[in-house]
């Protein structure tokens, strides 16, 4: 691929150039040089992103024609001695700590924004790199339509911030401003209470991901009567752990999870797909993280423990 480096622009590195990574590239490529972290030698970058000006559901209902965005990124190895300003971490949670640590050490002026699932790496990286690490969560989504094409499936919101409220770096504020002036692939906003956002997302993932992975079903099937007791039990245990961390849980945790399952009823969780394809899951960073929090306080979590063991055993059986 011919280099499209613009030396007057800042350089952005996207770790995990998959679904969310493609949205990051599409969002910022007009203002930044976008590079994908080549974490494996056979990496093939997507070339196009199909998106709608409105939500995909509304676009389908109104028979709107989707637009096609050409992704202008390239592997970071194509430019020797490349200096990186922003690192977006969109890879699996089990890769995020090591990769982010190495890249922040390699690029001492860079700021990292973590968008991976689960929790654990955020805390460790913030302890080591302090203000150079921001936490994030997104409700945006995309799926791979072919080897070189992604299709945006959800136009949501991407929230970023520090684990404790403090002013954002000027460069990050500029990112948010740039995002507001272009096509909203990410819906980037600042949130001084990002820990609560991530814990609420963890609550939903702790229910939906293991159940759909074990039962190999869509998100909406979590609403079935056979899972009612498990949904309630996991929610009760997670909200207790949240309060121990001084995190305010949803007013009705079960209703919160059920509403998200209904909203994404036809979707399949990433963990369900990982189990189906015999890939490593992020269970250690979802239920495993919660079990560690419970161990530190001596709190019994029979529902979380049972579902953690089910996924571990199920994954080993399918491997």
Automatic annotation (TrEMBL):
Pathway listed: Cofactor biosynthesis; (R)-pantothenate biosynthesis; (R)-pantoate from 3-methyl-2-oxobutanoate: step 2/2
Gene Ontology terms describing biological process: pantothenate biosynthetic process
Known catalytic reactions: (R)-pantoate + NADP(+) = 2-dehydropantoate + NADPH + H(+)
Any one GO molecular-function label of the UniProt entry: NADP binding
Domain named Ketopantoate reductase N-terminal: residues: 13-162
One Pfam family here: ApbA_C
Keywords of the record: NADP, Oxidoreductase, Pantothenate biosynthesis
EC number(s) from the headed UniProt entry: 1.1.1.169
Highest taxon, organism lineage: Bacteria
Enzyme class: oxidoreductase
InterPro entries in the cross-refs: 6-PGluconate_DH-like_C_sf, 6PGD_dom2, ApbA, Ketopantoate_reductase, KPA_reductase, KPR_N, NAD(P)-bd_dom_sf
One cellular component (GO) term of this entry: cytoplasm
Residues in Ketopantoate reductase C-terminal domain copies: 193-311
Similarity comment: Belongs to the ketopantoate reductase family.
Function: Catalyzes the NADPH-dependent reduction of ketopantoate into pantoic acid.
Protein name from the UniProt record: 2-dehydropantoate 2-reductase
Native source species: Reinekea thalattae
């Amino acid at each position: 691929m011919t280099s499209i480096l613009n030396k007057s622009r800042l350089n952005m590195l996207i770790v995990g150039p998959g679904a969310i990574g493609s949205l990051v590239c599409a969002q910022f490529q007009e203002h930044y040089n976008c590079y994908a972290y080549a974490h494996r030698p056979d990496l093939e970058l997507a070339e196009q992103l199909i998106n709608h000006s409105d939500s995909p559901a509304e676009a389908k209902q109104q028979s709107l024609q989707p637009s096609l965005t050409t992704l202008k990124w390239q592997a970071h190895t194509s430019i020797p001695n490349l200096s990186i300003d922003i690192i977006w971490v969109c890879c699996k949670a089990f890769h995020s700590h090591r990769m982010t640590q190495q890249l922040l050490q390699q690029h001492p002026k860079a700021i990292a924004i973590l968008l991976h699932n689960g929790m654990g790496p955020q805390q460790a990286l913030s302890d080591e790199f302090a203000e150079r690490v921001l936490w994030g969560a997104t409700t945006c989504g995309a799926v791979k339509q072919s080897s070189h094409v992604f299709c945006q499936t959800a136009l949501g919101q991407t929230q970023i911030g520090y684990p404790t409220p403090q002013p954002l770096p000027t460069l990050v504020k500029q990112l948010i401003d740039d995002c507001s002036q272009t096509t909203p692939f990410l819906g980037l906003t600042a949130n001084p209470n990002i820990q609560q956002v991530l814990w609420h997302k963890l609550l939903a993932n702790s229910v939906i991901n293991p159940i759909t992975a074990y039962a190999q079903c869509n998100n909406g099937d979590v609403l079935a009567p056979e899972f009612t007791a498990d949904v309630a039990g996991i929610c009760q245990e997670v909200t207790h752990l949240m309060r121990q961390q001084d995190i305010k849980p949803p007013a009705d945790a079960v209703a919160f999870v059920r509403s998200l399952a209904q909203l994404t009823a036809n979707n399949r969780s990433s963990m369900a797909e990982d189990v189906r394809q015999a890939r490593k899951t992020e269970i250690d960073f979802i239920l495993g993280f919660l079990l560690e929090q419970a161990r530190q306080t001596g709190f019994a979590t029979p529902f979380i423990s049972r579902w953690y063991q089910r996924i571990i055993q199920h994954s080993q059986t399918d491997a």
